[in-house]
């Protein structure tokens, strides 16, 4: 341990720590802007300037290493003045239309300006020419808000290995964006939204569809159905100040009913349907010499990546549409028939933790009889805004149940789809029983659980050795894909999700502030635990035991992978 003095207090911290880490370890907070634990730390913004005795100038605490006997003042007049000037300079080049900004009240620059005590516009003058890009289906980029912190640059590079965003130009003209300031739609952006989640301000955000949904809710000719992804229940509460990991399934359903949706269903039902289709597709590939490893296809960010970066591997992808798209297709076919409603009058809204699903819904490969399966996709954050707009007091709502008619049942397997490893575990629960031809007691595949790093397992399923792997984010998936390309992949089945930790950390989930990220709280784990808790509480925990799924096959689809199932529930990909 290293002994040093911070603000006249003797403290200790492990060797190799920065001043910022040593201070935080001892309960002393130094404001930061560009710093994000495990992602950035270059001293770029200089907000964390502190005074170090004997140093010639102020030091950036996030990069400056501690040493024995060091004396640090984080709040000396010199440090406070410098910090305020840095923030004043950033604010001076920032479009200050806070009232119209999507991040109003949830903005790190607002908080920082308040914290350092900015009371007037210190530097008036020219602004860097702004650029507004809303061409891509899910991500909007507004450089008039950008503070050049580089957090999005690091997220795209380190999490996805893509590097779609970088600094462009120099000096006063510096901005952050794709090469040559192109649109994100013109580069290899997979629309994961991880850059949005780390943006401290409103420079990156999702393309909003709230007003389209409000129009549909107010259109008497429309039968408006909403479905919620598994991960929403584990995050929506954060939009209303509830602790991370609070499960709000019942309150969410009540809020959706108050918003006026005609039916409120859970995408979990369709996750069970996906397992039937995907599980049987896998068995078919294993038993008939099909292309292996088979890779899951429910994360549209991953699909975007595969199409752009590994087009030669598209035949490894399951042909299954993602669960919410399958649900839309069933609602506009079977449900429409049963209820006597013209499919054109059914408007399906998906509440998703995902930005890429906004693009997925409109892909021409996914149309069924010329209609989109899903009409609008709202992120968890957008649903939070919609609930606030309608003046609903979310925290005090009582619980309600999803509508039970036709699609109300779901298994625990469907719930865990929302976290990394969940799709694999759900599939194994069904595939193992189909192969064993009798009920299996141990259905917890813990080797594929967890929100960090690559997960692998070799399982003996009814005498068949099955090697599986689970990757979440492209930096983890890439080595697996390179091995497949080189013909040396040992796996039979791979789950790939676009975002680290899976959907619980999707690009549409509530923003986790730098303060929380830097505190070391494992927010992904907390959200993931909420889903495993719900799984363990479910009476039915295997997709094939969902009786309403069994009825759907009996009355409509006939059997998994049938001709009709292929027509409605499967898709193809484009090189
Ligand atoms: Fe997911 Fe899904 S689990 S992708 O991670 O497969 O977005 O939550 O809704 O569709 O079910 C996201 C989450 C979903 C879908 C499901 C899958
Ligand atoms: Fe990169 Fe994802 Fe942002 Fe696109 S959406 S720029 S891939 S981090």
Keywords, separated by commas or semicolons:
575 residues; alpha/beta; Ubiquitin-like (UB roll); Alpha-Beta Plaits; Rossmann fold; 3 domains; four-stranded parallel beta sheet; 18 strands; globular; binds iron/sulfur cluster
Could you characterize what this model shows?
The protein has 575 residues and is α/β, with parallel strands linked by helices. The chain has three domains: 90 residues, Ubiquitin-like (UB roll) (Roll), CATH 3.10.20; 79 residues, Alpha-Beta Plaits (2-Layer Sandwich), CATH 3.30.70.20; 359 residues, Rossmann fold. It has a five-stranded mixed beta sheet, with helices on both faces. The protein has a four-stranded parallel beta sheet with strand order 12-11-14-15, sandwiched between helices. β11, α7 and β12 form a beta-alpha-beta unit. α8 packs across α14. The chain is globular, with a radius of gyration of 25 Å. It binds 2 iron/2 sulfur/6 carbonyl/1 water inorganic cluster (HC0) and iron/sulfur cluster. 2 iron/2 sulfur/6 carbonyl/1 water inorganic cluster binds next to α8 and α10.
Classify the secondary structure makeup into a structural class: alpha/beta
List of distinct ligands in this structure:
2 iron/2 sulfur/6 carbonyl/1 water inorganic cluster, iron/sulfur cluster
Radius of gyration: 25 Å
Q: Helix count, per DSSP? A: 19
CATH architecture of the largest domain: 3-Layer(aba) Sandwich
Please give the alpha-carbon distance between the first and last residues.
55 Å
Task: Give the overall average pLDDT.
Answer: 96
CATH class of the largest domain: Alpha Beta
